[in-house]
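Appendix B, example 12.
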Amino acid sequence: MVAMNPSDIAIIIIVALVLFVGTSKIPELFRSMGRAIGEFKKGRIEAEMEINQMQSQTTPQVNVQQNTQKTLSQEELEKQIKDLQNQLEQLKKQQNSK
């Protein structure tokens, strides 16, 4: 049996397309193949996004349970609030400087 390179197979496919489909139909064929590939990629991305959303919906419930078990003192909470306010002010300054 003769081993064929991928380039040989591609040439045979192109010649067969020209013979059976004709030169005027080849651009339409490749255009429709491109659209099909695009739709496939779009569907795959949407499915991945749905999976990520489902996973992110389950993780906050675990975090909420962990946070309720942990009780913070009033001083710690006030310190966290001040830190967050400082971070917010810094971000606002950065946006205004741009």
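The radius of gyration is 29 Å. The chain has a mean pLDDT of 82.
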